[in-house]
Design a protein that fits this description.
Pfam family, one: LRR_6
Structural class: alpha/beta
CATH class: Alpha Beta
Keywords: Repeat
Oligomer: single chain
Distance between the termini: 7 Å
InterPro entries: Leu-rich_rpt (IPR001611), LRR-containing_regulator (IPR052201), LRR_dom_sf (IPR032675)
Shape: elongated
Protein name: Leucine-rich repeat-containing protein 34
Number of strands: 15
Radius of gyration: 20 Å
Length: about 350
């Protein structure tokens, strides 16, 4: 695939992007302008590029200081774009406002297959909006919703007091407000059978939320890659019961092949469950970010470098990665004919 790379070209990147938007090459094109400071002005030219560049199938805008206004322009341009397959907006703080425009775009766009909105400071409203529109969108194969900004205090939600977009909570279930988005994502997975790769790191997921995902995974036959890990001090708060339920999902769902759980709360039952998964062949070591080891007859889990973040922000300057899984970085699922 032909491509234009303008990464880390701070002084001239806006002018270069403006020039790219004015030309239409004869073959499929990818444009990579990651790690520049193009801001919302650059977002305007990126939107213009999407409107005029009829052969563009890949656009990487990660960490470009694009805010809600630039995100709005790009999302609106994608409503009419019929060629782009893969967009990376990672690290651009489009916030809840920008996220809502991207969710609205997915109601119209039927060609985009992968959307990376990790570290974009999405809000609860926009995450729920994505879960809602993905019940109908049949084009998206992979979506990254990592690290949204979810606020709230613990509340007791009962059936007679909570009906949110057809998602009901069992009577007496106690959840965090932060887990509301996970409940909607679980509902979406019951309806959507096209999504293959889902990233929901640092969503404040606890056992109730992961139980909702597990129930959906029993019915879902498309999701292969689920990332609920977080490689930081602050993590999802899934504990033993929820992690064991995820392990059971891998046994009952033959399509579900990759899972990344590091950074959650492992107890002995969790360690044994994933040890058994690997020993029984339900989970390959290359397809997870943990590896079991035994000390004095007790099983523990250690972190290994197969995680999805290994080449997420950068790629090797030469050579090939040993295998696809360690070099995942939201690239597990191929999209389009040329990617």
């Amino acid at each position: 695939m032909d491509g234009i790379v303008l990464g880390r070209n701070f002084p001239g990147c806006k002018r270069s992007l403006q020039g790219v938007s004015a030309s239409v090459p004869p073959c499929p094109l990818g444009v990579d302008v990651r790690y520049n400071l193009i801001g919302d002005v650059g977002g305007y030219y990126a939107a213009r590029l999407l409107r005029k560049q009829l052969n563009l199938i890949y656009l990487n805008l990660m960490f470009n200081d694009i805010g809600p206004e630039g995100g709005e322009l790009i999302a609106k341009a994608l409503q009419k774009n019929t060629t782009l397959k893969y967009l990376r907006m990672t690290g651009n703080k489009i916030e809840n406002k920008g996220g809502m425009f991207f969710a609205a775009m997915l109601q119209i766009n039927s060609t985009l297959e992968k959307l990376d909105l990790g570290d974009c400071d999405l809000g609860m409203q926009s995450v729920i909006a994505f879960a809602t529109v993905l019940t109908q969108n049949q084009a998206i194969k992979g979506i990254n919703l990592n690290r949204p900004i979810l606020y709230g205090e613990q509340v007791r939600t009962r059936r007679d007091g909570c009906q949110c977009n057809s998602v009901s909570i069992n009577e007496g279930a106690e959840i965090d407000v932060e887990e509301e988005s996970t409940v909607h994502i679980g509902h979406m997975l019951k309806e959507n059978h096209c999504l293959v790769e889902l990233h929901v790191c640092k969503h404040g997921i606890k056992n109730h939320g992961i139980q909702q995902l597990c129930e959906a995974l029993h019915l879902n036959s498309s999701v292969r890659y689920l990332d609920v890990s977080w490689l930081s001090v602050v993590s999802n708060n899934i504990e033993g019961e929820g992690l064991v339920a995820l392990a059971r999902s891998m046994k009952t769902n033959p399509t579900f092949s990759n899972i990344y759980i590091w950074g959650n709360k492992f107890d002995e039952a969790t360690c044994v469950a994933y040890f058994d998964l690997i020993q029984m062949g339900h989970l390959e070591l290359a397809n997870t970010d943990v590896e079991p080891f035994v000390v004095d007859g007790r099983v523990y889990l250690a972190e290994v470098s197969n995680g999805l973040k290994k080449h997420y922000y950068w790629t090797p300057t030469y050579g090939e990665a040993y295998s696809q899984s360690p070099n995942a970085g939201f690239a597990l699922v191929p999209v389009g004919q040329h990617l």
